[in-house]
Description:
Elements: H1 8-20, H2 25-35, E1 42-44, E2 47-48, E3 53-54, H3 81-89, E4 95-99, E5 105-110, H4 111-124, E6 131-133, E7 138-143, H5 147-158, E8 167-170, E9 175-177, E10 190-193, H6 206-221
Helix pairs in contact: 2-3, 4-6, 5-6
Amino acid sequence: MGFTIGGSRGTKEFRSGTRRRGRTSECTAVAEYTGLWGWDVVPGARAAAPSRDCSCGDGRCAAPGAHPLPFARTVPAGATLDEVTEAWAGCPGAVVLLPVGRAFDVIEVSEEAGRRALVRLERMGLPLGPVIVTADGRAQFFVAPGAAAELPQLLYRMGWDDADLDLRALGPGAFVTAPPSDRAGLGRTGWLRPPALDCAGGPPQARLLLGTLAYICHRLRR
Length: 222
């Protein structure tokens, strides 16, 4: 699978850069996110188990290992592997964070609900975007931007507004920890459904998935 930054030029840069020097798995993943999927990436703080002290140095950090490093700059969509490596050299070992609210919003449910919903949604033939699974048992569905703002009204229209659902939307200002990074010292994140060329650049509207996600969350609550 080649990178599409500037056509063959991007692929050539990726291959030659790999030969010139070793790359960390984080740099390779970030270059795929920026170059192939068109996402911005932000270097994030890391938390080490078992104490989960945050690498930001704040002993009272409210989100250890789950926030951007204050001094790190965003690696923009379209960045090449060489550009990613240069940016990551200033924060080696940083966690790979994807800013929410730009290319996508996120609907988050429990991992069990996410796995059950994914099977049902695939059987229904509905369009799907990437889905992250976290070490602390959460599934994060990528949906079109704007979902976080629309969620209360969407749930109301579907009759789920008064239900006690383990479901929330993440929008602008939020970040998700992307594979292969560790999330908050709890373990590595992974792909329940990896990004693909037919969906990463245009995730589905939240309304297409929300009914199924809400129904399964409700069943699990019962």
